[in-house]
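Q: Give me a protein?
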Amino acid sequence: MEPMRYSAFSVQDHYPQRERTLPELYQQVGAQAELAEALGYDTFYVAEHHFHEYGVVPNPPVMLGYLASRTTRIRLGSAISVLTFHNPLTCAEQYAMVDVLSKGRLVMGVGSGYLKHEFEGYQVDPAEKRERFDENLALLTRLLSGERVNFQGKYNKIDDIQLNVLPLQKPTPPIQVAILNRVAAYHIGLRGQPVISVPYASVDRWEEIGDLVAEYQKGRAEGGHLEAGPDDVMITLHTHVGDSAAAVRRDVEASFDLYVETRLYAKRRTYDDILSSGLSLFGSVEEVVDKLEQLYGWGVRHVMLLQNFGLLTPELVEQSMRRIAEEVMPQLQERLHQLKAA
């Protein structure tokens, strides 16, 4: 059985009235990327957000270029690049540079955005976001492939343009599309594109993750995309592994509740709410391994672990990252070997 892949994710949520400064946050993210590489994580992802402490990396290519200079092997990803807000020429140029600077380690998570204040800031009508996203993604893909593009669309006009800096990965770096619900999962599956989902923001119960994955797989099958890849479905979950559920609550409850307080427009879930729904990987090693085994059974082969949230200290974040690598990863793999043998 193929192994589960594990990636790290940083939203870079910031609290300007609290003790951690913005430069300190950026330094912590860089150190966590280095640690993720040393521990064998697959990819280190960073979010894109604008105009609010919800997230303080408005330009992921800049942050990914910084992380490329601090690492040598781990893949580096956007989760997500909000294509709706950006000229696809600029976006393609910036991410092509990241792929070159990282020696071919870029993974592009892309999406259409959902935060009201960001659409207002960019003066983009949210009603247009799906059309804008689809047009921009198609152009981005063509440009990154090295094609000379002539295009007249609803939102873009490109006259005979070819990038002068091309990514090292061919035909393009991997591209993953963010989804929020089963309908989107089905339609992206129909296209055969990999997906990223953040269940805590879009579903109500742990078991609904299985339903979402099944809908995506149904779309892939109906679209004739029968060959599965390890990055086809990526599930993103808040994660902290400790000695026990009680120890995890002690360490992260306040930080999780602080994080949720700043999540504009999302479902407001306290620590108790997230435990009741099951939509996290909070708990002991055995509890987390049990849940990962369930995800694997539903067809998930890649999890993105959000371990730096609220104002968790770097020491607590790093302790959890190590326990994932040194205890959770080998224990899950041993269970999968036993299932295969049985």
User: Anything to note?
Assistant: The first helix runs from residue 22 to 39. The mean pLDDT is 95. The CA atoms of residues 142 and 149 lie 7 Å apart. The chain has eleven helices and eleven strands.
